[in-house]
Write a structure and sequence with these properties.
Blueprint lengths: L1 E6 L4 H16 L3 E6 L8 E3 L2 E3 L3 H14 L7 H14 L3 E4 L9 H11 L3 E4 L37 H12 L5 E5 L2 H7 L8 E4 L16 H4 L6 E6 L9 H10 L4 E6 L3 H5 L5 E4 L5 H10 L2 E4 L8 H8 L4 E4 L13 E4 L4 H13 L5 H8 L4 H17 L3
Parallel strand pairs: 1-2, 1-5, 2-4, 5-6, 6-7, 7-8, 9-10, 9-12, 10-11, 12-13, 13-14
Antiparallel strand pairs: 3-4
Helix pairs in contact: 1-14, 3-4, 11-13
Length: about 400
């Protein structure tokens, strides 16, 4: 079986998931290809099975028109023609969509080709973009207009074209018979069943992680950062901002006692300038092993995300024996049970502070229970579920 993975970027959780599914497929005796959009520092073609499809100018122009007209997913016409040419040459048995926006490609052009050639498609929804007029998420705005046309869009970033984009998507996806929708969380599956995709096959396959990498580890992290005798409150993200709850860490840095040390991973120079001096800022780790060492040395992972699907940072922390505190939003609380973390309903700084004290000072959760919970999310087992799904789709059993 030939499998083609398509994702807007090669990095972050979605990029890793797409590439690792391809890796598991190859290890299982199949042939897999990964095509992504342009990213700084990536060569146009990494090798015959890993291809960077777009270039800097194409992506820049696409993002500009997206910002001006709210039309992400409708640019990159000529680059998408190239992608279609690669598809025709490779002749995959199945195409696996991931993030299809973010200045990646011209979705109508690709969908038309898929329809014409009746190519089976599995589409993993990593956010809500596919069935809205442009919003990847709408939890904060408490919007429900995506259910029937996005006619009263309350998001000024997307409102210009929200209704017409929604109608174009509905028309585009109608008649796409050989498609199967996968969501990483039950939360997103339920939303998808209320959307324009309600008549499609929808199933849940949770995200997984490499449990050979993410496990309790010993390191010099505490001594290197001079926080041997402090409780470490860790935050990990690769797109820090309001959605990821950066403001909560800033508020906590002013209210937690000196016995606590906040550490943020995944920052950059711009974010770092907005942080108080008592927060340790780490731009990036050299590899996942170093990230696992940081998780292992933390007393708690705080993930105050306001909108999210099924964040792998929660699983990574648990696998390293570290309890998790998160909000009851999206699929984030699905990862946690009563033995390995706390789900906060009322999103106040005071409630977060109480939860941190309970985890750190009362030792409410054990390393063993955290690791046990994470064992449910072995990436090889999760990605094998995708391969089994692909095989059933190609054979016509689904």
């Amino acid at each position: 079986m030939k499998i083609m993975e398509l994702n807007a970027v090669p990095y972050g959780s979605t990029g890793k998931i797409a590439q690792n599914i391809a890796k598991v497929a190859t290890e299982s005796g199949h042939e897999a290809f990964f095509i992504c959009g342009w990213t700084k520092g990536r060569k146009k073609s990494v090798n015959d099975h890993n291809i960077v499809a777009t270039n800097f100018l194409s992506k820049l122009y696409h993002l500009i028109i997206s910002k001006a007209f709210g039309s992400d997913g409708y640019g990159s016409y000529f680059m998408t023609k190239k992608i279609i040419k690669w598809i025709s040459i490779i002749d995959p048995d199945i195409i696996h969509f991931h993030i299809m926006h973010d200045g990646f490609l011209n979705l109508p052009l690709l969908i038309k080709y898929v329809k014409t050639n009746n190519i089976p498609v599995c589409w993993t929804f990593h956010d809500c973009w596919a069935f809205t007029g442009g919003c990847p998420y709408f939890t904060q705005s408490e919007c429900n207009c995506w259910k029937d046309g996005c006619n009263e869009c309350c998001n000024t970033k997307y409102s210009k074209k929200a209704s017409s984009n929604w109608k174009r998507k509905k028309e585009m996806f109608s008649g796409l018979n050989s498609v199967y929708i996968v969501t990483p969380s039950e939360w997103l599956a339920e939303l998808s069943k209320q959307s324009m995709f309600q008549d499609y096959n929808i199933t849940v396959i949770n995200n997984g992680i490499d449990l050979n990498v993410f496990k309790p580890k010993v390191s010099n992290f505490r001594s290197d950062y001079k926080c041997q005798n402090k409780y470490i409150v860790l935050g990990v993200a690769f797109d820090w901002g309001e959605r990821k709850g950066l403001d909560y860490f800033i508020h906590l840095s002013k209210s937690l006692s000196e016995n606590y040390q906040i550490v943020l991973v995944g920052t950059d120079k711009k974010i770092e300038k907005s942080l108080p001096e008592n927060i340790i800022s780490i731009h990036k780790t050299k590899d996942q092993n170093e990230l696992a060492e940081i998780y292992s040395q933390a007393d708690v992972l705080l993930n105050p995300t306001r909108e999210d699907n099924f964040p792998t940072v929660n699983i990574e922390a648990l696998a390293c024996g570290t309890p998790v505190i998160t909000f009851n939003t999206g699929g984030s609380p699905e990862i946690i049970d009563s033995k390995c973390g706390i789900v906060i309903e009322n999103r106040s700084v005071e409630n977060i502070k109480k939860a941190i004290i309970k985890v750190c000072e009362e030792k409410a959760f054990s390393t063993e229970d955290c690791v046990k919970r994470a064992s449910k999310y072995n990436e090889k087992e999760k990605f094998k579920q995708y391969i089994d799904l692909f095989l059933s789709m190609v054979s016509g059993d689904r």
